[in-house]
Amino acid sequence: MAILITGGAGFIGSHTCVEMLEAGKEIVVIDNYANSSPKACERVKAITGKDFPYIECDIRDEEKLNKVFASYKIDAVVHFAGLKAVGESCVKPVEYYDNNVGGTLTLLKAMKSAGVKTMIFSSSATVYGGENPVPFKEDMKIGGTTNPYGTTKLFIENILTDLCKADKDWSVSLLRYFNPIGAHESGMIGEAPNGTPNNLMPYIAQVAVGKLKQLSVYGNDYNTPDGTGVRDYIHVVDLAKGHVFACNRALSVKGCEIYNLGTGRGVSVLDLIKAFESANGIKIPYVVVPRRPGDIDVSYADVSKALNVLGWKTEKSAEDACRDSWNWQKNNPNGYDN
Ligand code: NAD
Ligand code: WQD
User: Ligand 1: distance of its center to the CA of 35 in Å?
Assistant: First the structure.
């Protein structure tokens, strides 16, 4: 019995592969490497000393998916595969809906044909939109996403919810991630964005390594203690561990369940810069520029449901994540390309 991990070569996927293997689970990875490298899978093997198959496969290719399900005894799918760049999704909405929503529908058809009815899905705190008060709770109204990427997550949540209503044999876990940062402490796997990073932590790390001159802080006039945006930054290893808990739960309970995966703590942009500087002894030059369109002031999770039901909570601090991000960045300045 194995867990199929779609997008398993990616940032969160590769860390989840490590934690699944460390928890004694067998895994099979599929990925089309649109935003990753098969080298990440080799590094997962080196970290864990465990072997597993990784297959080049697009989740929109139903025939190939059917072959994967026919070749391995899969009991659950952890579904990371998707495109995730917010700005790009505004330029290429059709590609994002096709890849993320279309790909998920094709995957669900292949799962149904194979009789596999357990899925753990990578959703996002972005589905809470900009109107809810913090901390965000799983039962709050969702919607009001500000970009096609976020809307793909909303649509997929709706599709999976409807599926569980229609067929009581399905078991789905919708995991709403807050802001994943950090890297495995080995420094062997981490986040490897294409081109100039959009997200804060990889941007800071590339300033630290000298690839970028300075950080632009997007606005200091938000309704927050220091005026900069506040987010719930979760160490990717904690996040990866959350998938092991969610997977065990989904394999034993039917229906659709939703969990926030975050720390429950809000950290501002300036706080994160300070944490990086103190964890690594490196100064991060920055300049304050106007707000980035679509950004909200504050986002952090109510994490009580994940603790009470899954028995999971985060263990690592923002400083741990800053140290591990830097360890990955300085050892792999060009991601998996060197
Ligand atoms: P990532 O880009 O590193 O990983 C996604 C993986 O999916 C990549 O390896 C990519 O090559 C693969 N992929 C994309 N389209 C595919 C397709 N059609 N067929 C097969 N493989 C495909 O991103 P990540 O940060 O690891 O994110 C993983 C998941 O979590 C994504 O669904 C993302 O939307 C979601 N998520 C990420 C964040 C974040 O900030 N990183 C936050 C919330 C949710
Ligand atoms: C964090 C904070 C910025 C870059 C995005 C997606 C979301 C989710 C996670 C997938 C904000 C500020 C950033 C920079 C800055 N992804 N910032 N200078 O926007 O919370 O979430 O990634 O689901 O859907 O929207 O993350 O890391 O981009 O920004 O000042 O160069 O850092 O304004 O306050 P965000 P982020």
Answer: 8
